[in-house]
Amino acid sequence: MFSSEGKRMQGSDERGRSPIVDGIEAIAVVGLCVAERRRYAMGLARDRGFVFVPAEQTEQGIEAIDRLVDLVGMTSGVHGFVLEHGEGADCAENIGALSAPDSRAVLTDLVCVLDLACLHSDLDSEERAGALVSQIEFASTSALVTPDPADSGGIEEAIGLIAHLAPEASLFLRCEGAVHEPVCWQFGHRPPDAGWTAILNSEFRPPARAGGVRACRFEQARPFHPQRLQAVLSAAIGEGFWGRIVRSAGFAKLASRPYVTAHWDQAGTLLTLSPLSVEPLPGGGPELLALGQDLAFIGFDLDETGLCEALDRAVLTDAELLAGPMAWLEYHDEFPAWDSAHRG
Which domain holds residue 242? Predict the structure, then answer.
């Protein structure tokens, strides 16, 4: 899965990969470090014999990219494009646009360029952590750039984190200007699975090189008491009581909002709960047992037992559960309105 010799090695799961490209090939390059992202994208274009398209142009949208492909794509000797995207680019949106049936270019690889010198500071940044995690999770290739190849500890941590966040991505350590070997991922079929989805689907296999990174799953049939959950979040995300939680995601229910299932989405210090569905009012009885949590956690030195025990203490007690949803609606709930964020 990883090579320090500058050669790409396949991930453990080949689903979604294909050697066949029907159309003009496009490789998208993302990354928060502008200089390293551009340097890698330009090197990739030279290596492949592709046309380099800078972020200033891709930011104009898929229509501008299509026009460029129409103008240049049929030129003799042009085999494809390397599309650099700025740090504000939406990976899901770009994948959708470049996988659409009417797209002139076919996305075959989404490369996330990671500067290991900035990795931890980016994860600590409320403004950058979400973008960083999203780029890693959507990437089919992660290219690691390190200012100190001798920093084996930092490299191992990065490898472990990426292997948890994006278990299907190929890992490549950039050495002396080299670029990774060709990847052909069928994004039109599906993007690579994020680690948290693999954990919830019971498909995640811990990597051999974890670098102190661990993952765990929390399942609980009962809804959270909002005040007790808020206390756990402050301790877990704000103070790191059970390790440094880098990423958590899944599905949750607050007792104070009993008829809404929420998508739990946390990266760094920022947690967002977004409504997924509003359910019909239960008639009482068995329907209440369908309430609950299914969450994946990824972090450094994660104390799975301590974290899960704390979360268990945050759900409703027997007496609170029996009181029913009309009583739950009276609970003091300091969580922001849906689509806003709780800061740890």
Answer: 213-343
pLDDT digits 0-9 by tens, 274-326: 998 655 544 444 444 345 899 999 999 999 999 999 999 999 999 999 999 99
* Helix (H), strand (E) at residue 247: strand 244-252
pTM of the complete model: 0.87
pLDDT, tens digit, 9 for 90 and up, residues 138-160: 999 999 998 777 677 788 999 99
Domain boundary among 179, 200, 221: 200
Q: Are 19 and 185 within 8 A, CB to CB?
A: no
Number of Cα atoms under 13 Å in the Cβ half of residue 34: 6
Which residues does residue 271 pair with via DSSP β-bridges, in sequence order? 266, 342
Domain for residue 173, yes or no? yes
Enclosing H/E stretch for 339: none
* Dist CA 198 CA 165 (whole Å): 10
Given a cut of 50, whether residue 206 has pLDDT beyond it is: yes
Same domain membership, residue 101 and residue 28: yes
> Do 103 and 62 share a domain, yes or no?
yes
